[in-house]
Amino acid sequence: MSTAAEAPTTAVPDSPESFSERLRAATWGDHQAAEDHGFARALLDGTLSLAGYTGMVAQHYFAYVALEETGRLLADDPVAGGFHRPELERVPALVRDLEHLLGADWRERISPSPATRTYAARIEQMADHPEGFVAHHYTRYMGDVSGGQFIRRVAARAYGFTDGAGTAFYVFDGLGSLPRFRAGYRERLDSLDLDETAAARLVAETRLAYQLNTEVFADLGRTYVPGAA
Ligand code: HEM
Prior knowledge:
- The radius of gyration is 19 Å and the shape is globular.
- It has one domain: Up-down Bundle (Heme Oxygenase, Chain A), CATH 1.20.910.
- The protein is mainly α.
- The protein contains nine helices and no strands.
- Bound molecules: protoporphyrin IX containing FE (HEM).
- Protoporphyrin IX containing FE (HEM) binds next to helix 1, helix 2, helix 6, helix 7 and helix 9.
- The site of protoporphyrin IX containing FE has 17 residues, from helix 1, helix 2, helix 6, helix 7 and helix 9.
């Protein structure tokens, strides 16, 4: 018996994909590659050593110094400036985490890996390519307010952190509701005035940003998770 539910539906043209949907769809495979890396898996299942976690926080420090210094240079840029939010800045939180994890002399005890140097240099080059900078901004901060919130809980449990010590990086007190922030971020992506060349460049730079992050995991994996790279 035919029911309304079974009746063939008239083809309704799909609503045009928004830019944020396009960006996510075009880069999700790269996200999965980063998430599936052996180092990330060890982090997620709570088997990564505290030394490995500390090593990751140290590498984040160098990447975010580059990201946030470049972001400040572009704070008034018509494309990148709309994403500038001082409440997003992670370097102060990373410093707190490193003080907790390594002690007062943390700065003398850390150095960027080869992959982090490459990543930070690429971010700095984006000072002359604002849409490319948006790609790096998106890749890190949207990740931190999404999967990062899961990592925060796993790390607190795995390493017995209390009172947020060691995971300040994942705490975005100044942003209010994170789901609302993510929705607002997508709206900003959707309201960018980009021609096709610039839009394609932003997508391509996001794919590169994921790959550079995966390389940082690979460096960390070689040191802390033998067989992960
Ligand atoms: C380490 C393991 C990771 C886990 C478990 C994880 C998990 C997630 C989850 C659950 C989401 C939300 C998806 C949604 O809104 O439906 C997300 C989004 C995102 N993640 Fe990750 N992620 C990980 C690693 C990474 C890495 C390494 C990066 C980049 C450096 C990253 C960047 C992003 C970005 C940019 C988004 C937002 C995508 C969008 O909705 O436009 N993630 N992640």
